[in-house]
């Protein structure tokens, strides 16, 4: 099935002068104008998952049309802005091709790494769980890297082999730290500190969680969020203070 454009990044003026389909390298260059972290392996993965179907030359080279490009841009945008799993994205695009209007959830808020937690008292948005293949694609890592991270407890799948929405952010941070030479074994201390902080929060709110009054239990959740926010901010401030001390 050939796909029709679904909106998003424009193709006009970006094809070759004769309007012929483009190679995967050319499409990668265009996509990186909006998605600088996209790779050829990510495009190939989306093809393998049936999200895009480029034609092939007799020698086996992929050729992408304007519709293919638009569909890829839509997929990447829905992953980035709405944190949707590929199954939901595929259903949404297929519905669009049938002429159906399917609303998307509100875009996820963007935060910097130091303020990467909700504000005091703010509700956390619900995030869908994702499969292993989707996590690998979103973090742009291979199976061996993910297995190593799991071995050190940095990421954990549930009994069904799926991960929470926060796993993508964790994976990307671990990968970014790896670029500076920090290996998973070096991050065990960070993991242990996070677990100790979570334990402290749980000690405070545990009596509230056990209360029979639903309002009290709801207050426990709000308190836990507030304590987590303060804990993360304190941690960031202490790291900054320690770094400044070393620079003096």
Automatic annotation (TrEMBL):
<dbReference type="GO" id="GO:0003700">
    <property type="term" value="F:DNA-binding transcription factor activity"/>
</dbReference>
<dbReference type="Pfam" id="PF13411">
    <property type="entry name" value="MerR_1"/>
</dbReference>
<dbReference type="InterPro" id="IPR000551">
    <property type="entry name" value="MerR-type_HTH_dom"/>
</dbReference>
<protein>
    <submittedName>
        <fullName>MerR family transcriptional regulator</fullName>
    </submittedName>
</protein>
<dbReference type="InterPro" id="IPR047057">
    <property type="entry name" value="MerR_fam"/>
</dbReference>
<keyword id="KW-0238">DNA-binding</keyword>
<dbReference type="GO" id="GO:0003677">
    <property type="term" value="F:DNA binding"/>
</dbReference>
<feature type="domain" description="HTH merR-type">
    <location>
        <begin position="38"/>
        <end position="95"/>
    </location>
</feature>
<dbReference type="InterPro" id="IPR009061">
    <property type="entry name" value="DNA-bd_dom_put_sf"/>
</dbReference>
